[in-house]
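Design job #97: recover the sequence.
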């Protein structure tokens, strides 16, 4: 099965969407599916005012069509609601090709933090975008319920996983800091609610791994916090393994793959009881969810690291990829209208 995934989020960005799609492609190949990505690469771009430091592609419709037809996919999936996603959506709608989408980022809440645009207006736009899809995949049951309540239809499940060979408890970084070490990982931006963590009165050390538009301001405001910058791959794993508690202060993430990555490193989670942490942690003894984040951090210190690791071992990317493929296999959206075949026939006829 040949699958084309259209995404506005791609390398060199470092976020949950990019890590999810990269892991999906690797695991899908083991299951006999070939995934190709249609990304912003090669298109001009512009700065996004509401997200300092990020740029969005300005795709050309003709080039989008050429890339899709060159891929000759059996199925088309749109992973993001940015310019690339909208242009691929228009291509499919014009040619009456079914496609699937995924809801991975709470843009309405993110935008509301940075602008005066009401959440209801943003949800109306996203509801329109996803209404054209045969299935809109979501990672958790709580998000599915929330979107359903906002009028989203044809919702399906696509869970997330963790690479337990990359993220392990072994070989933690030697961080020369007072213990216990409370660490958070992610984009240093206002929507991540980092100050809810950084302002806490905690023993030991507070560490931030990641970069973003708020970093300079937060470094000035919290001089005792250690900001280590962006880490990826094995280096990220060794830092997570060195922490005593992973703190996830976000109130808006749809899942938070980094929670599973921390657990795979044997590091318990402290978070607010909101969608994402609720779906990952639930009532499992691998983290503490509390509206009092300080209390959650302190109580998480008593959790068994072995229990955290064993929990993560049961959440594989292969299972996630299997769900994704099953959602597409039931539809086979593009098989009967494979555009590249028509192009080849036309080319042969012109001879």
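Job complete. Output follows.
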């Amino acid at each position: 099965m040949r699958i084309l995934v259209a995404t506005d989020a791609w390398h060199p960005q470092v976020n949950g969407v990019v890590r999810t799609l990269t892991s999906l492609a690797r695991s899908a190949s083991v299951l006999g599916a070939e995934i190709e990505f249609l990304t912003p690469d090669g298109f001009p771009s512009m700065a996004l005012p509401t997200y300092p430091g990020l740029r969005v592609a300005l795709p050309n419709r003709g080039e989008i069509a050429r890339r899709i037809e060159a891929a000759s996919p059996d199925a088309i999936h749109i992973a993001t609601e940015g310019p690339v996603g909208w242009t691929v959506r228009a291509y499919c709608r014009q040619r009456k090709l079914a496609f699937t989408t995924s809801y991975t980022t709470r843009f309405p809440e993110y935008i509301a933090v940075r602008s005066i645009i009401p959440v209801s207006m943003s949800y109306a736009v996203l509801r329109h975008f996803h209404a054209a899809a045969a299935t809109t995949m979501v990672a958790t049951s709580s998000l599915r319920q929330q979107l359903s309540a906002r009028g989203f239809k044809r919702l399906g499940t696509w869970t997330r996983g963790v690479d337990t060979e990359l993220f392990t408890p072994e070989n933690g970084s030697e961080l020369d800091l007072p213990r216990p070490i409370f660490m958070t990982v992610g984009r240093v931006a206002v929507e991540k609610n980092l100050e809810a963590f950084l302002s806490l009165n905690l023993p030991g050390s507070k560490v931030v791994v990641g970069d973003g538009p708020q970093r300079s301001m937060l470094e000035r405001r919290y001089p005792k916090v250690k900001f280590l910058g962006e880490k990826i791959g094995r280096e990220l794993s060794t830092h997570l393994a060195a922490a005593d508690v992973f703190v996830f202060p976000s109130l808006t993430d749809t899942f938070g793959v980094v929670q599973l990555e921390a657990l795979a490193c044997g590091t318990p989670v402290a978070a607010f009881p909101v969608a994402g942490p609720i779906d990952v942690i639930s009532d499992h003894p691998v983290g503490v969810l509390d509206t009092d984040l300080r209390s959650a951090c302190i109580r998480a210190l008593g959790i068994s690291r072995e229990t955290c690791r064993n929990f993560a071992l049961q959440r594989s990317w292969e299972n996630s990829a299997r769900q994704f493929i099953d959602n597409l296999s039931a539809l086979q959206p593009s098989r009967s209208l494979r555009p590249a075949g028509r192009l080849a026939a036309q080319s042969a006829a012109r001879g």
